Amino acid sequence: MTRPAGGGETHNSPTTHGDHSIAANDIKNVIIKWVLHPSARWLPLLLACAALVTAASLRPAGPVGGFAGWGSLAGVALATAVIRVLIRKPRHTSVIAALSLVSVLSTVGGWLAFQDAVAHREIDVTGQLRLEGRQPLDGGPHNALTLRLGEPALKESRDALRLTLALTDHDPAGPTCVQDTSATVALLVSGVEAQETDLRPGGTVDFTLGAQTSSVEIHLALHTAHGCRMDVRTARAVLHDT
Fold this sequence. Notes:
five-stranded antiparallel beta sheet
């Protein structure tokens, strides 16, 4: 096998691994110099605080459960940034670099999680679901209601509607008919196949909504024993993504 001209050893050359290795080394050195610079101590903390304040001011009203991921990452970002500020004379550059990197990455990840939660969070529309029809209902001719959800409640598009209905005795002092009562609910939405299901008192159903749904109409038919009179109300209605 012919050796390279001049008898040089190519494996000792700094360019043996290509320009990518040199570029990565340069980037690493720049990052290390930045995180060790005195002015860089406060930057991760300022970034984390700015992101937290902005997200808190933009967070829509409603349950906070959907923002748990954002809250966790924001907490990590703040904690590591504070520790970074408190270490004035670092003994190990790798510790300082790790703290700064974790704080910045947690801030960015938290912001992305916040944006995702805003776009896909559950929306409580219980108070906006209207019941149309005369109550109380019975097992005879007066056994139907219509539930409607208008365009204002659907301005933020979601894939599904989770509905929980309460079926209660009209006269609480009389004999109860709850155990003999059920309801058939049918969703009618343009562009979506009719969905029908039976519900017991306190039962929950998930209806699939079509894209760009502008209104929701649900027909309810009550089934109960003869002589029973029942009231229907929406216990909870939530728009959500599947």
